[in-house]
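#lab-general

N.A. 3:47 PM
ok so I finally got the sequence cleaned up, no stray characters, all 666 residues accounted for. can someone with queue access submit it? mine expired

B.Y. 3:52 PM
send it over

N.A. 3:53 PM
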Amino acid sequence: MHNTQTDHAFTADELHYLQLLSKSFPTVAAASTEIINLEAILNLPKGTEYFLTDIHGEDEAFRHVLKNASGTIRRKVDEIYGTSLREHERQELCTLIYYPHEKLKLLRKSVPPEEMREWYQITLNRLVKVCQNVSSKYTRSKVQKALPREFSYIIQELLHETEADPNKAAYFGQIISTIIATQRAEAFIEALCQLIQRLAIDSLHIVGDIYDRGPGAHIIMDTLCDYHNVDVQWGNHDLLWMGAYAGNNASIANVVRICLRYANLDTLEEGYGINLLPLATFAMETYADSPLEVFKPKVKFIGKYYTDKEKRIIAQMHKAISVIMWKLEGALIDAHPEWGMSDRKQLHLIDREQGTVTIEGVSYKMKDSHFPTIDPQNPYALTAEEGGIVTHLHGSFTGSEKLRRHVRFMLHKGSFYLVRNNNLLFHASIPLTAAGELKSVEVEGETYSGKRLLDRLDALVQLACRHRSEISEAQQYAIDFMWYLWCGPDSPSFDKSRMATFERYLLSDKEPQKEEKGWYYKLSDREEVCDMILKEFGLNPQGGHIINGHVPVKTVKGEKPVKAGGKLLVIDGGFSKAYQPETGIAGYTLVFHSRGLQLVQNNPFESRQKAIEEGSDILGETVLQEWGAQRLRVRDTDKGHELQRQVNELFRLLKAYRSGLIHERG
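B.Y. 4:20 PM
back already:
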């Protein structure tokens, strides 16, 4: 029987909670042991957080920066070996860690067989030292969970012993020698390298836009689905694909259009099993004699060879889906006049005889006005064949098993924003007024702003992507809204006056192509605005940061990624090859480890093969280093605050045991 009397130091509710806690820690010894364990964890160095944004399908560059942890592994190697190894030896060791299988294959061709044993001996010792270093900030339990099953016991022994210990030198050396003697050296090297890669990054933050432009978004998603600790803040390109999966036909047409624009058929056909044959057949017949210059694919960014005939077919498909898209978007805009997007309808403004379109009272000459499927009397109506293509694509997207798996991952691991360790992560913006205040945005007849707006939109996305046999009115609105999140003027994942796709495609005049950025982009370089936003999300502006992507930082024009006195970090610098002529670089990676923040500018990634053969890397200039006076510990993080709360509760449980208010069990 528990004592039902309450001590003045305990409320009735607290005592009830402690009685529940006692089921997990039934004795003083059990509670004390857990306190000791948690206090030890709290004093470990903070794990390394890694931030990437706007990957845009560049799977090779993405996987490379994961392998090198944006310089973290190179920094560790330099710290361990300093001048004891020459520059090229340290680079060779790093390349081996990044690409062990491929590097070993090359070495077998260049190193004589009689010298391989010595190479194995030296390399294994070096790798063990690196692995000991990167694992030192974790508990043994956490490291053990990361170990490859085949070599788990051996690696544990090597990590916690050293040849420098005279009592264990022979033991340590014999393990290495036996690995080589049993011809398991290469398999063991690969296992160690993969473990180093995993331990170098404790948590990975993807701040939006995994999809579109580059050829391997599906490959990136496969990598993320299997990653040990990752979260995603949705970008508008991610939401476009999620909307396509949810069954939003305008989103489906946009996805297909962008893939055709960048000649990226592999993602659709091989990645997600989307059958484009009906579209291709229709396009080749309908646009056989049509001008196609405007719709020529941007093949130079895809790294894949296409014949002139193939490029022509892609251009015909591109034109066909673009017309279908403009029709579908027009119908969606008519269904939701509250979105205020009527200016995004242009088909009824075309004069095909004159080859012009009249926008806001100004007549513009069109680069292409041959649109045989547009009925001047009912321009937004799909033809029977176009309707059949939409139905087919709808079934392909909503029925794709691989896309379903990837969207489920995005729903489980993703959100509009993340608050972590006094950093606020979101892809694009927080809608603001001209006065720098939080802007009220209407959603289903109710207004929201700031954090409340993003929370409401988060719920809408979850509802839209939940497949059901019957779709309710509320879910249909959520599905429709997925397209607004892609390009709506008050969408926090877009936040521009308009997406001028029609104008950019078909007009030479630059004025109607302009997309006015929202006030966030104009005002967020002010410290007081960033402070206000940080407070809105419950963060302390002192030492806090906003981390964004979405708008590429054009370094060639003198733009900087660090704004508002270091409060705002815009880390989209052109990961996508399509952006690099404008940005001059290949994006940024932000690393937040126990010593502080480090923002690294990436150089364009040439190829995986060149990285393996020549040791070339993507690392460029470090543009920000924000070191703390003291090394950060787990206790300084959000996780540490949670663990500290558990420690405090366990101390209260000990007091309750010792005061006799709760009895020990067993």
